[in-house]
Specification:
Layout lengths: L3 E5 L5 H11 L4 E4 L10 H4 L9 E4 L2 E4 L1 H11 L14 H23 L16 H14 L11 H15 L7 H11 L2 H14 L2
Parallel strand pairs: 1-2
Antiparallel strand pairs: 1-3, 3-4
Helix pairs in contact: 1-3, 1-6, 1-8, 3-4, 3-6, 4-5, 4-6, 5-7, 6-7
The chain binds glutathione.
The site of glutathione (GSH) has 12 residues, from loops.
Length: 206
Amino acid sequence: MPNLTLYHASPSRSSIVLWMLEELGEPYDIKLLRLSEGQHLKPDYLAINPMGKVPALKHGDTVITEVAAICTYLADEFPARKLNIPVGSPRRGVYLKWMFYGPSCLEPAIIDRASPRKEEARRGMLGWGDFDSVMNVLAKAASDARPYLMGEQFTAADVVIGSGLRWGTMFKLIPERKEFADYVARLNERPAAKRAQEKDKAMASS
Ligand SMILES: N[C@@H](CCC(=O)N[C@@H](CS)C(=O)NCC(=O)O)C(=O)O
């Protein structure tokens, strides 16, 4: 029986971890939750993630929640898969920056833009600053990617940032920029990304 179990709703933010698991290549199980039926709010799931959110990942007796934490954990826990930049490498700082930039800047900037507020918050109060700065930083990173954020090595940072850009592109929530389109197209060509999307499609329609 696989030692890794993903609590997943299809499609959702847990699809990011599904892609990560496909990149990892370790055996895993999926426990599918129907958000529309409120299965994520039932006591047995709240015991796993009291936030009532997917994803959650079980690795043996360890439970990890939050997309970027799960991707960081998996990449570090299975270093032979080379999806992380290990402790001790001078490149780890930049790698961690991108891992945190996903949930700290990219995602809140998009969600905030998609649900306009009555009054503009002060830029200094917002951890992501402002939407345009986040987009400009990411457009430069995508354009500098050779072919990935960390250079030739594909890492968990591409899963986290790439998923955000892919989602934002799909729902037209980020500007149509060639840098984003090229980077996302490159990621979509990865066999693991295709497998994850196929699995998600099958689960969503089941
Ligand atoms: N900060 C969380 C966000 C997770 C999240 O919002 N998941 C959504 C699915 S996309 C969810 O579970 N929504 C159900 C609900 O809030 O009722 C993470 O990064 O894992």
